[in-house]
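Entry:
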Amino acid sequence: MPEYIIETEDITAGYGKAVIIEDVTFQAERGKITAIVGPNGSGKSTFLKTLFGLTRVFKGSVFFDGEDITKLPPEVRARRGLGFVFQVNNIFPNLTVRENLEMGAYAREDKEEIRRDMEDILNIFPILKERQKQKAGSLSGGERQMLAMAMALMGKPKLLLLDEPAAALAPKVVAQIFMRVRDIVNAGVTVILVEQHAKRALSVCDMGYVFSSGRIVMKGPGNELLADEKFIEAFLGKR
């Protein structure tokens, strides 16, 4: 089994003819949290979408579980074990919480295992357990994000891609979201997250990558980046 669950080699990608990320070589270790941080417009979300097959790749390769998936469409990547939680429009507001979770398992046929997995996932997200019969559209912003994460887990991913899960949430809710991310990893799912809350993301991740202008400009363990004077001055402001 490869040490890295997903890797890219000199990947250049974007939309139409526009290049957004360039020459990105990246690795995410199995069973860990990898954070991608950087200023707005630096290509973070585009890179995450490239891993899932939602951009145009101009050159380079993406490897998942040791297999070249560069040319595979998103639905095939999902069946191979890639899960994606978009920043917005990531739940079905007119369905109940439980119906949303059932939709997350739409491609599965193992009904008994689906039932067991749903119980396990509801234990990770106890607030959703309380609101199973509630319409998803009536949930708070933080609860919706938790539901979106739970839905993705119902597809049994090996790797979960999270695009700014804490965006526009109150600080207390942000703390809860990151606690749930750690719980997801403890349950055996590798996580890559793109996040504007750089300090928070780097404080919980095992490895961090810093993007700027579509390229990786720094990388290292999260605690080391948070202690790096160059990173602090460039991306967090002077002490």
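DSSP finds ten helices and ten strands in the chain.
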